[in-house]
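re: ur question from yesterday

yeah so i grabbed the chain u mentioned. its 584 aa long if i counted rite. heres the sequnce exactly as i have it in my notes:
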Amino acid sequence: MIQTKMLSTGRALARAVLTKHTLQRGILQNRSKIVSVFNRHFHHPTEKNVVISSYPKIVVPNCTFADFVWADLDKWPDKTSVVCGITGRGYTYALTYKMSIAFAACLRNKLKLQDGDCVAVMLPNCPEFPLATLGSIQAGCIVTTVNPIYTAEEVSTQLSNSKAKVIITSPECYNVVKQAIELLKQPIHIIVTESKDGLPPGAIKFAEFAENFNEDTQCLRSVRRTPDDTLFLPYSSGTTGLPKGVELMNRNIVATCLQQAEQKLSVILPTTATHQDVTVCVLPFFHIYGLTVSLLSKMSLGLKIVTLPKFDPETYLNAQAKYKGTLLFVVPSIVLFLSSHPKVNHTHLDSIKLIMSGAAPLAATDVDRFLDKTGSGVAVMQGYGLTETSPTVCMQESGSQNFASVGSLVANTEAKIVHMDNHDKVMGPNEVGELWVRGPQVMKGYHNNPAANEETFRPGGWMRTGDLGYYDEEFAFYITDRLKELIKVKGYQVAPAELEGILRSHPDISEAAVIGVPHPRHGETPKAFVIKKPGTSPSVESVKEFVADKVASYKKLGDLVFVDDIPKSAAGKILRREVKAKFT
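ran it thru and got these structure tokens back, copy pasting raw so excuse formatting
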């Protein structure tokens, strides 16, 4: 049950806070009158074979995401914004706004954070996640999201690169965070959500900031953030190499929210006094898909967000049955679960209007199996995107039956298929090449990484995706393979270079190559080929355990083989295609 104090705030509060913090309703209501200032990667195409989105152009308001997300708050202040699908703990929209403002003020007043400072959010899906994220944004800060199952080494690397000054985490992650900060050897404030076991030593209680409604909010008047300022700093391996910070601007996130709201791509009904769509969110919010597609864009429309910290069949089905989720944003494995699990019945399925699947391909046979169980009234859609594109690039229309395709380009987006070896050659329909894109959702660039930016961006504002694909005569896009070296395990990105570096640090290993191999449940799993140092005899299991101790569970090696040599180029780069051809 939603806490009673959370229902006590109403429209008066919403109007007051909207007026107080100068959110200009006219900016977002009269979008047709605004001249949108797109980011530097958007230009009108003059090249041959450039595909332009067929949807009407959207006008991206020249505002920050903080203004955008709360623009219609006075329409649904008493509606539930977020609720825990297990405990029932939750908040109304008005209280979510009020608490995020209090949290922001405390960050500025008590921790002395300034515009552009970085705050790390390392939380599972929970009601505090949007409070922490939106509060940090309203304090003028950049948010970097951290996987809560990361090891201390992985957390320390991200904290160091992002230069985070504060980390917000859960009691379960506290020890890992503490170890990460010790490795970093730099002081970072730790804010911890509430625990039955009490507050860890040296930590700040989350509620002391979020529920401090007496905190002076005058400090927020000095926040000066623009649409072109970095808002989020998620980490992605991009086309190659180790994880890099992806600088997503306010404008990028506002654009992707509007792109997803295109009428032909959505079955969401307006939130009113008598209706509120519901989404049960199990996709992790630290990931760009969960963050913008299932959380932030839906909060801007007034949906009820039901959070689950991880996928567990029983809790997932219980939450879906209790809260009657109407929109589900999932990965293919969850669609398969709903299609085949014996406990899934009409109480879990009858409320569903839309299932959006992403992160990996969903086969047409899997869709057919799901629709056989739910009936034809459910729209099943797929999409394609990257962390670097906030993430939307392509989405299927509601009711599409072409499940081999990832859909067509979302509004304001352009794309071309470029020859893999000759970038001056742009391919036509049904010709496979590398997909290049541009649009208002494309990132500013990689954080402090000019070499990666040089590799990724091309003249004219084009961004290389590293993915191979083509489009047909109807301008539906198909992704066939990846130029990039990433391995996708359960929808998560695993960088071979990271695992190879860990393997080479083993005292008995001189060289290593890692590739992705097919896996029946996980999509792919990492497989290592390693060369032993002379005179040593490490076992396969001991080396796999060595790696497992240093990485998150989804990065663990599925298999390892000892070899005598590893194919490399003259420059010493591992030739992964040759590795696959030679050893698999």
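noticed a couple things. Confidence is low (pLDDT under 50) at residues 1-45. also Residues 457 and 463 are 5 Å apart (CA to CA).
anyway ttyl
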